[in-house]
Amino acid sequence: MSEPELTRSVWEIDSNDYPAGASMDEKIRFLLRYAILAPSSHNSQPWRFRVLGNEVDIAVDESRWLDAADPTKRELYISVGCAIENLCVAAEHFEVEPRVEYHDGTDTDTVATVTFRDDSDPSTHRPSKLFDAITERSTSHELFDERRLDTAVQDELGGVVTEDDVSLHLVDEPAVKQSISELQGKADQLLMDDPEYRKELGHWIGLGALGSSWLMARIGQAVVTHLDLGEREAAKNSKLIESASLVAGLTTASDDPTSQVKAGQVFERVALLATTADVAVHPMSQTLERPELRTRLQELLDSGADVPQHLFRMGYTDEDPGHTPRWPLEMFLA
Ligand SMILES: Cc1cc2nc3c(=O)[nH]c(=O)nc-3n(C[C@H](O)[C@H](O)[C@H](O)COP(=O)(O)O)c2cc1C
C-alpha cells in the first residue's frame, strides 16, 4: 500500500459531524482531527496516537525527529505539546473533560495519556474562542507592519499561561530585540554551514511539507541542500525579527521532556489566542538550536535559572499565509 499523501483537505472539518451520541472511543477519534492541525517543527508532524476506550496515549514519532536541527529533541516534544493542546481545546468545546497525565518520556515514547470524561466543567475551561482558531491558525513568514500589540492584547496573551512552571516573556524593548535579531543572524550562519542541517531541511521542503507546490518543493530542496544560504537567511530573518512588534520567549523551570511538552501546549494556546486577535505568529528556533546561543538568549530574556524552550515573533500583517498540508489522521493512529 502506498504512503498517504499530504493534503489540505484535513483543515475542512465540519464541527456538526461530531459524533455526540457515539462511544467515547469514536468521539476521541473525531477530536484528534483537530490535534493534527497543530504546528510542528518543519511541519514534521511527529506524533502518534493510540486510542483505548476513554483515553488516548500520545507518543513522539522518532522517525520524524529532526536530528540535525533538534539534537536534544526539544522541538520534537514542543510539537507534540501543540497537538495535545489542540486536542484539549477541541474536547472542552464538545464538552468532554480532558485530563492530561504526563509521562517523563525518558524510557518510553509515550509522553502523555489524555483521559476524557463526559461530565464537563466549563468554569475550568480555556477561553471558548480558541476552538474556532484551531482551523484558522497558520504560521506567518512575512515582514510585519508598523502596528504594535497594545497592552490589553499583551495582557490577554499573558493571561492564558496557567502553568506554574512555564513563563511567557514578551520583549518589545528595541535594544533587546536588536540583540535577539543579531543572535538569529549568527544562528542562521552556523546552521546553514552544516550540510546535515541543510540536507534535513531540504528533505522536508522536498516532501512539500512546508506548503510549496510539487515543482517548487523539488527546486527548494535542491537549493537548500547544495547551497550555503547562511548569509541570505541571516539578513532576511534578522529583518523579520526587527519588524515584529514583540519577540516572545517561553521558558521553563526544568529542561526535560514534560516541561517541553507543556511549553508546546502554552505556545499553541498563545498562538490560538493571537489568531483570534488577528495577530500573526512566527516561531524562530535557530537560536535555540545552538547551545551557546541558547544560553545568551536566556540572559537576554532575563529568565534567571529558567531555560528558553521556544522563541517566536508576533505582529500584524495583512498577508494571509494560507494553510500548510497535513498527512491524514489515519497515518498517526496506532
Ligand atoms: C517547535 C516548533 C519550531 C518551529 N520553528 C520554526 C522556525 O524556526 N522557523 C519557521 O519559519 N517556522 C517554525 N515553526 C513553524 C512550522 O514550520 C509550522 O508550524 C509548520 O510548517 C506548519 O505550518 P502551520 O503552522 O502554518 O500550520 C516551528 C513550529 C514549532 C512547533
Please bin the fraction of helical residues: 40-55%
User: Architecture of the largest domain in CATH?
Assistant: 3-Layer(aba) Sandwich
Output the CATH homologous superfamily of the largest domain. Answer: NADH Oxidase
Ligand list: flavin mononucleotide
What's the rounded overall pLDDT mean?
96
Order of helices and strands: HEEHEEHHEHHHHEHEHE
Biggest sheet architecture: 4 strands, antiparallel
TL;DR?
The protein is α+β, with helices and mostly antiparallel strands and 334 residues long. The protein contains ten helices and eight strands. Strands 1-2-4-3 form a four-stranded antiparallel β-sheet. A four-stranded antiparallel β-sheet has the order 5-6-8-7, sandwiched between helices.
Description:
The chain is an alpha+beta fold and 334 residues long. Helices cover 41% and strands 16% of the residues. The strands form two sheets. A four-stranded antiparallel β-sheet has the order 1-2-4-3. The protein has a four-stranded antiparallel β-sheet with strand order 5-6-8-7, with helices on both faces. A hairpin with a 2-residue loop joins strand 1 and strand 2. Helix 5 runs antiparallel to helix 8 and helix 6 runs antiparallel to helix 7. The radius of gyration is 19 Å and the shape is globular. The model has no long low-confidence stretch (mean pLDDT 96). Flavin mononucleotide binds next to helix 2.
